[in-house]
Amino acid sequence: MKEAVLVVGATSSIARSLASKMGQQGTALHLAARDRFEVERIAKDIAIRYQVPVSWSIFDALDRDSHADLLQKALDHLDRLDGVAVFLGELGNQEKAQREFDCAEQIIHSNYTGVASILTHAANYLEKQRHGFIICLSSVAGDRGRQSNYVYGAAKGALSLFLQGLRNRLAKSNVRVLTVKPGFVDTKMTFGKSGMFLMAKPEQVASAVIRALQKNKLVVYVPWFWFWIMLIIRSIPEFLFKRLSL
Amino acid sequence: MSSSSSSVPKQPLSGWGRYPLVDSYLQRPEKVSSLTKIIQTAENKPVLARGAGRSYGDAAICPSCTIITERLNRMLAFDEESGILACETGVTIKEIVEIFSPRGWFLAVTPGTKFVTVGGAIAFDVHGKNHYRDGSFSRHVCNLKLMLASGEVVQCSSQENSDLFWATVGGMGLTGIIMEVEIALRPIQTAYIKAKSIKAKNLDETLALFEEYEPQYQYSVAWIDCLASGQSLGRSRLSFGSHAAIADLNQEQQAAPLKLKPKPSCKVPFDFPAGLLNRYTMSCFNAFYYHRQRSWQVQSVVDYDSFFYPLDFLRDWNRLYGKRGFIQYQCVFPTEVSREALVRVLQLCAQKGWGTFLAVLKRLGSQEGWLSFPTPGFTLALDMPIKPGLERFLVQLDRLVIEYGGRVYLAKDARLSPEAFRSMYPHFLRWLEVKSQIDPYNRFSSAMSKRLQIESAKERIKV
Question: If you average pLDDT over residues B451-460, what whole number do you get?
């Protein structure tokens, strides 16, 4: 029997690529995203290309009351659930977030609180079932706070810690947790921005995530060299780091 | 990791020929709503859709806002009975043939590279090696959805809003943004082509072989050595082919007649020095290519990739021509004068040494869109590196093309004059009428439309 996976935040280009690659392997999918028009198109696309069952529903990370329903909806369509992939978040506007805390709060909710909420529901279900996996998109930005994006970075950093704890908790229930930390990826978040380098395509990130899942990795940096870049950035002493403009 | 407020700089943009380079603002919507938003909020700045950027010159460049459609590439419906595929504009030929050939479907018309998008194929009304039989890409388009300057989306086809349809196929994106398309695929039994390759000693033999074998095969094309002269003028290797039936395959192929093993491709790693492809190296290469096939006729069964997309195995092959880029000059001559005109073109090439790596000769049938390239006759495509003297040579060719009542393919063009364009495209005024109605303020504009002065209201040149 083939696997069945719920992909949350499916309209982002990385999530779409991952869902496509899973569909290509024969995985049945349930896609959830805020934009009904787009999620329906992506669902149709994967179903036509790979001839797998793909259903969809609407999901808003900030509407936490609806999160329990999502798991149920996915189960109604798929009959089983082997994995949950959560690809949520937005970079937001750091400068505005510095001026207005409402904006900062929004970034924290969409990158951390909302994500933690859906992860909690997914974890509880999979823990009871005693089998499955969780894939969640964090970011290298969460590895060290920097002036240029620390609100986003802090939310992603909190998410990475949350996932660490979840992994620890679910280990005994045979549920794997994979944290994905991409560097620069060629998405709408980075398109046309200056200062981008070593940019990865969403398809490359998706392939790396699937490989990491197959190899039972716990945390994956994509592309792989970001592990080394972040190792260096993390090891700079704070008294020096505070003077840098990274 | 950078903050979101950085402004987006202009970037140098070119077509596949890497000439000209034009600084342009780029957008790349990932959602339909983002595209609508660009059209509705771009303050009447000229915009243009760009697919894979595989047109050669300046046709897919708009300095104020070039909209890259590659991420709008969702397949929306496929009817297993009729073979009709509905998809978004950014789906590529590669995606279509790779997904559907294992299921027994193929494009009815395919260009010589699979890296183009469906939207681009319609915007330039591309043709394949079977134009003479099956028409151009647009003949197999059941209908398309076009976003107009107002942001309104209109459906059109050869039946419905047909004026808009004939202005849009071959219209180079200047009537609006092609959003969605329904195309009819064609059933195939195998992923292979039964091919026959024949050598011809000269142009007369080449043309005679076209006549002789065309009725027996679906596809035909000739690679001409345009640097050969005298007795050998127009010597060529012709290639004919038809979709193979299961009985045509060998045992190994028959085991999985619709499946191809993935083949490795290679990549040109850097820009070659500009002078590397000169008349001497190219004559050598052409002679080698011509003589490589020893016998006059070879019959074989090849996979569709090798038959239709031979150059796709060498990715970034445009770098062979160096940083300065190259021009592909593709022209067509009406059937009655084809022979005479081709002799003159080939003589000119051989004399001046402007010929290229293998030139391509194909037969075309009747025209579809008002700015579509095909017209009944023979079409010749020549690649030439940008260097001093090229423009003078091409103007000579333009004159010859006009003299014989032919035309130059705009998908490849980067330098034609507005006057020459008007002499070559007799249906232009009909096209302009539609353009003026639906886009009077030239919301959709390209570097090419400016150069050729094919814009509404500002029609300055009297025809």
Answer: 77
| B77-83: average pLDDT | 97
Whole-number pLDDT of residue A220: 97
Domain limits, CATH 3.30.465.10, in chain B: 75-187
CB A85 within 8 A of CB A135: yes
Q: How far is B146 from chain A (nearest CA, A)?
A: 18
- Which residues, other chains included, contact A13 with Cβ-Cβ below 8 Å and sequence gap of 6+? A185, A187, A188, A202, B30, B71
Confidence of residue B460 (pLDDT cuts 50, 70, 90): very low
Chains A and B form CB pairs within 8 A to the count of 74
**Cβ within 8 Å, pair A92-B9:** no
Find the CB nearest A149 among B1, B27, B75: B1
Is the dihedral angle over the CA atoms B390, B396, B398, B400 positive or is it negative? negative
Band of the pLDDT at B289, cuts 50, 70, 90?
confident
Contact A188 B6 (CB under 8 A): no
Give the distance from CA A149 to its chain's centroid.
Answer: 18
Residue of B nearest to A13 (CA): B30
Chain A from 189 to 208: CB within 8 A of any B CB: 191-196
ipTM computed for the complex: 0.94
Residues in chain A closer than 8 A to B95 (CB atoms): 49
Give the percent of chain B with pLDDT over 70.
97
3 state DSSP class of A132 = strand
Is B301 in CB contact (< 8 Å) with chain A? no
B3–A contact, CB cutoff 8 A: yes
Question: What does the pLDDT look like over B320-367, one tens digit per residue?
Answer: 888 899 999 999 999 999 999 999 999 998 888 887 777 999 999 998
DSSP H or E segment with residue B212: helix B203-213
pLDDT, chain A, mean:
95
Give the residues across from B407 on adjacent strands.
B332
Query: Is B398 exposed, middle or buried (CB count within 10 Å of its CB: 0-12, 13-18, 19+)?
Result: buried
B457 touches chain A (CB under 8 A): no
Mean pLDDT comparison of A194-203, B119-128, B278-287, highest-scoring range? B119-128
Q: Tell me, what's the pLDDT at A1?
A: 61
Domains recognised in chain A with CATH numbers = 4-241 (3.40.50.720)
CATH number given to B194-419: 3.30.70.2520
How far apart CA B271 and CA B253 sit, in angstroms, is 38
Q: Which residue of A has its CA nearest to B80?
A: A48
For the segment B39-48, what is each residue's pLDDT rounded down to a tens digit?
A: 988 677 999 9
Residue B458's pLDDT is 54
Residue B6 has pLDDT above 50, yes or no: no
Domain with CATH 3.30.70.2520 in chain B: 194-419
| Mean pLDDT calculated for residue range A99-114 | 96
**Within the 129-188 window of chain A, which residues sit less than 8 Å (CB to CB) from chain B?**
140-141, 146, 148-149, 183-184, 187-188
Identify the CATH assignment for B75-187 out of 3.40.50.1370, 3.30.465.10, 2.60.40.2150, 1.10.3720.10: 3.30.465.10
- Side by side, the strands of the sheet bearing B26-27 are B26-27, B66-68, B48-50
Residues on chain B touching A183 (C-beta within 8 angstroms): 1
Closest residue in B to A44 (Cα–Cα): B76
d(CA B354, CA B42): 44
Asked if B79 is an interface residue toward chain A (Cβ–Cβ < 8 A), one would say: no
